[in-house]
Amino acid sequence: REVLALALSVEDAWRERESLPIAAGSCAGQALRLLVQACADAGRYGEAQSWARRLRTRAEEASPRVEQALVFAASALSALHLRFGFLRAAAETRVELSSEARPAERAWRSGLELYARGLRALEAGQCLEAERQCGALEALGPPLLEEGKTDGLCPRDVARVVELAACELRGALEARQGDSARAEATLVRAMRLERRLRPVGPPAFSRPARETLARVRSRFGRDDKALELAEALLSERPGQGHAWLHLAELHLARGATPEATRALGACLQCWHEADAHLAEVQRARALLAGTSRPRHLRLAGDNAPA
Question: What predicted TM-score, i.e. pTM, was given to this entire model?
Answer without folding.
Answer: 0.88
